[in-house]
Amino acid sequence: MSVLSASRRRSRRWLIIGLSLALLVASVFLYQSRQTQPALGAEIIASNTRPAAGFRQAMPGIPLNFPADHGAHPDYQTEWWYFTGNLQDETGGRWGYQFTIFRRALTTESSIRDSEWAGNQVYLAHFALTDAAGQKHQAWERFSRAGADMAGAEAKPLRVWLEDWQVHEVAPDEFELTAQADDIALNLSLVAQKGPVLHGDEGYSRKGAKPGNASFYYSFPRLKSSGVLKTSGGEASVEGWSWMDHEWSTSALGEGQAGWDWFSIQLDNEWELMVFQLRDADGSIDEFSSGTLINPAGETLDLGPDDFEIKVNDFWRSPQDGVDYPGAWTIELPTQALTVKLRPLVKDQEMLLSTRYWEGAVSIEGGYSGQAVRGYGYAELTGYGQSMEGRF
Questions:
Q1: Residue 15 pLDDT more than 60?
Q2: Which of 30, 58, 231, 268 is the most buried (most CB within 10 A)?
């Protein structure tokens, strides 16, 4: 009663705005239990197990065009802008971060009514920080519709945002990333040393046998990163390297594909490697797994499933419910004389958000053409605690 009475004392305009925000929060942010139920907002994002009628599917022969393709592709149902990075502070402390903004189209109509609050696009953002010294991983999540400038993506210059979490282009191929949650704040300058690098067939990345089981996919694989990280322990200058993925699709995964193991690797000899293996529901590795090897000049070599092997060396069991995730790996490219071993900076980097997955910073050591190499990277494991079929 006190809330209702207070609202009556306000003007009619503010009452309407307040009720609208309450409905938005109730429909998008409401959780029954984060630990046992996916968020209602994520159920909206992943509501269809099949592509909605009218959305385009990724097909071959469509060239990518920059800078236009840095922005949103609302004709496709699902899209993400993905930043991960490994940083070091002045004391030598290691930090990993993930910053992702996802877009999901609910309908193909441009709007549901004539209002700046109306729209058919829902945005979701994930922000995570890994503290290697403290063996701690934290993650946060936000939802918003695209109306009233609360979230969105623009191409010229690139700007993708959800409220005050954002990445925006300040100069050609130079970006600024800002995110904060609780007592954590990250502000980074990201300068591309290579890219954009197109994966698959000139950016067309097949994921399955049927037409449309594919995505458009490119990366900035080496972003020189510097900035400021604030935590409960104070403020520190940090520097290192980041990786950016941008991908869009409608129904990329095929029937029976439960998830994927994805790796980005940045070596100290200025080579980069991206590989992913798709896993079917029975645990077998799908034939449409692939990757890209990138040399210091930015030239690429496309990799098929026979060109690399991912061996699991260890497992980590989630204290949440006992789900086992791979916990250490060896990746081999026999024809390229490349073998690297990957170990997580922190074993528990599970993302217990509306979509459950493991995403974490890894250290790397191995050999390439007889020379020792080291580096850092990121691993993403989906479909272990929650199937991704119908979500991408």
A1: no
A2: 58
List pLDDT tens digits, range 136-174: 999 999 999 998 889 999 999 999 999 999 999 999 999
Distance between CA atoms of 208 and 303, rounded to whole angstroms?
16
3-state secondary structure of 241: strand
pLDDT at 20 over 50: no
Q: Where are the alpha helices (DSSP H) in 54-118?
A: none
Q: How many helices (H) and strands (E) does the chain have?
A: 3, 23
pLDDT of residue 115: 58
CB contact at 8 A, 138 and 184: yes
Other beta carbons within 10 angstroms of residue 322's beta carbon come to 8
Alpha-carbon gap, residue 103 to 74, rounded angstroms: 9
Q: And the tokens for 369?
A: 């053409």
Which residues on neighbouring strands pair with residue 146, listed in sequence order? none
Distance of CA 112 to the CA centre of its chain: 28
pLDDT(33) > 90: no
Give 234's Cβ-side CA count (13 Å radius): 6
CA 136 from centroid of its chain's CA atoms: 20
Cβ-contact 229, 235 below 8 angstroms: yes
Length of the chain: 392
What does the domain layout of the chain look like in residue ranges? 39-382
What's the pLDDT band for 100 if we cut at 50, 70, 90? very high
Fold of 39-382: AttH-like fold (2.40.370)
